Amino acid sequence: MRSKTKTIGILTAGGDCPGLNACIRGVAKAAIHYGIQVIGVQDGFRGLVENRTITLDSAAISGLLTQGGTLLGTGRDKPHKIVMGGKSMDMTEVAVANMRRHNMDCLVCLGGNGTQKNALRLRETGNIPVLTLPKTIDNDVAQTDVSFGFDSAMAIATEAIDRLHTTATSHHRIIVCEIMGHDAGWLALGAGIAGGADVILIPEIPYDLEVVARHLTERRRNGKRFSIIAVAEGVRSKHSISQMQLEVNHNKKKKKDKERDKEELKSPVPQDPNDEELHLVQEPVASRIARKLQQLTGTEARVTSLGHVQRGGQPTAHDRLLSTRLGTKAGTLLAEGIYDVMVAIQGGEAVPVPLSSVAGIKKLVPRDHTWLETARLVETCLGDEL
Ligand code: F6P
Given a cut of 80, is residue 8 above it in pLDDT? Predict the structure, then answer.
């Protein structure tokens, strides 16, 4: 096939994860196969604005498949709102000019939700062709069944839960393990089920610590003297949600009736064992939950926050395969001259989907998702009252 694309730029943006290098390699190898020249842009969109590039020829991509991180470097900058010389600037025109300088026909962007949005914005305001690939340990990119990086992070978090099990058992403790995921609970849920966590708390299901405490007490009564709790970093208590709702209603009322509002402000905020001080201090959520559960159950509690360990190291075989499939499919689409799409996995196939149907949408865990049912059927408490 004669390629319709001659030259591409490729960048990685947002948080890194295992599988990025494998995907860069997949795109580049397929592109080179079709005779496309590949230019690597360093450190995400900032590198495009600052015109920092490297040539990605066969030698440059050799040995990448198994390496963690990204050889291009990454960053969370947005071309339309980037800090330059201490000031936030719109550098879209500069980014576009640099693409033209290198004769790039298309900019390939590997990233999560933020990157999908930034790429679409570049397309719309800069009028340049883009193609994206779904990367994130959070697994929350829309339109794709799975994103690369997720499986590797899930394997790391599962292994951590396995290790916590043995020490929690020895000491008869509650161990709360904080797992990444601000808005989506896929990682905590997947690793929690795979690691056999006794409680899994995710942002999509507001938790009630009294329900959790009852579950832990029941376990103890049944002779299980330890418990593992997998907590996504973005969890919210049931009480804090109703508190937020209270505040919204309160603000609406304020506009209508200032006098009545004054009276309301005098009345004390309703107290709840879930939340006393819980949202007043800047303490990691897992630590706040552990402290409250220790109080409520009388069992000693400890906390482990997995943090960026979940994003480090080599990709799993699953992620290597996924990244390579997505990357090579991207190369083929570029050769066919298909742009402005994200390469997704749907029903096991790598397929292009319009970028406009992805950007700005987060794939959260639906309340009727089969993984939730699975968790409940193995007696995992999800922090809600059934
Ligand atoms: O977006 C992926 C992610 O790993 C989230 O799960 C996490 O909350 C965030 O990135 C952490 O970002 P940073 O590396 O900037 O601390």
Answer: yes
